């Protein structure tokens, strides 16, 4: 059988069960035709075959990010970025917000994203009054990088119907000063509920989805597990399917059934509607039913069994009682769903494990692959329960790089068990890596760097006992992600018959200084046999006019 494209002279990291390294890959249509030496794959060449010389660089399966927010990532790109290179202070953000207000019709929302107070000169949140000084005719919201907290102006509070008499919602805080006046800061469920009013128009959402997909492809990501958006989750799913069908979203999507706003309502709606996990095709598929159980690891608002190291009376925040969890997710399990929950603290993790164990005792099911999103402080006893129950944790290694200094302050020695990649591998627990973008940086190479080195941006070691190898990190970002969506038989490794989703790196990653892993670039990304990104025109240098012989 002739090949359409043949990649030769590469460091082909297959991520097969033997972690084999090959030299070449032949592709026919949207499938991998052959894997082997350069000589072996060239045996499938014809006059029409495109030959792409990888020149010794690493070729590996397309990255599979097992937890990010496609819609939020995309719509953020339509707003003001608080992580742009020129942002050094609150005033820099205010300048950009003023510009955005000038080009936005009065009464329409002005949004900023990626805010992180510790990265700014003032090291604080803006005040409501400072946002009012920018505009009282536009509702303004600044979203913290964790997506669990925001600061808004008076117009936004007015539109949301929030007054000094408004009670805190369950699982949320409307912050007030010592005199009971609203500060404009909304935490957890108060922040989530704001987005019942601060929603985007459908055309904006669709535009954002395309922008997000393009950035994912440039990052070498070919598959994502979408972890939900604000507002009506059903609308987001519908728009996403339309964008995929129209070819605007190129990455493959495994859609978690969850919403950042009133997640239980959306889960119950979808569970009662009939479709279950697995419905769809290799471009779009229904994933697990998902709830939120606790908060943000850098809020910090996660639910812990012991108090925070820096605040001895604080144990974080729980969204649902054990009975509520058991009922909502237990019903989803009974009806055939894979189930999962955002659970960061060890208390929250224990609750979701109790929920899964109860569901399996009442309605046993083999190979359920129930998940835990993030599974932040995963103590050894919780790891052992994950192994026993067959649970798939979804850790975020880049959190250690971005937030490691704060974790040391908030959780002390518990960092030894945060996102414990080494323990998972040693115990035979399949954990799929994820970025949680836009909560942190999208780049899988940064995630690999963080998993291998376990150092913060300031160079502090954060749980060195959990360091893993480069090959192990690559597997967690490829095959393990496919396993978490029941798709390891069609993708996640470079093997004959699997989908031709391929990423080529700028260097031989197995030979790069491990302290420089984050500097490796994406050279080329192929999805479904089609080259969608080619940074240095690697395909333009292919030999199409004559047959290459070895």
From TrEMBL:
InterPro entries: Amidohydro_3 (IPR013108), Metal-dep_hydrolase_composite (IPR011059), Metal_Hydrolase (IPR032466), YtcJ-like (IPR033932). Residues 50-533 form the Amidohydrolase domain. Signal peptide: none annotated. Transmembrane segments: none annotated. Gene3D superfamilies: 3.10.310.70, Metal-dependent hydrolases, Urease, subunit C, domain 1. Pfam families: Amidohydro_3 (PF07969). PANTHER family: IMIDAZOLONEPROPIONASE, PROTEIN LONG AFTER FAR-RED 3. This is Amidohydrolase. It comes from Cytobacillus citreus.
